[in-house]
Amino acid sequence: MSETCCIKVKRQKTIIFIEAYVTDNILTIKNKICKALRNEKEPSDIRLQLESHKFPNEQYSSLDDDATIGELGLSNNTILYMTYWISKDVGTGEWEVVDVPKFEPAE
Q1: Distance in angstroms (rounded) separating the CA atoms of residues 107 and 49
Q2: 18-52: pLDDT as tens digits
Q3: Residues ≥6 apart with Cβ < 8 Å to 80
Q4: Reported pTM
Q5: Beta bridge partners of 21
């Protein structure tokens, strides 16, 4: 049996918890997200990103659909950021920017 981990996927004020095997690839995670969203989005309209500490000019790194959880070194409580493809005209559009509000403790 493969090892599992819980991944947090954030977009705006939404957090989706996904249980995944370390052998699952990013496309599998996107399919699980679509299921959690009641199939309102297609996997091709979702981009998953990881906070980047490698490149000073980039805050987030996009994850390749073929990469596995194990290859990426993701573990329990890893936070991925989700953005949607926004269509403008037929065949054109752009990705949203990551928009997750900072945590503010209750008073």
Answers
A1: 31
A2: 999 999 999 999 999 999 999 999 999 999 999 98
A3: 7, 8, 9, 10, 29, 48, 49, 50, 63, 74
A4: 0.86
A5: 4
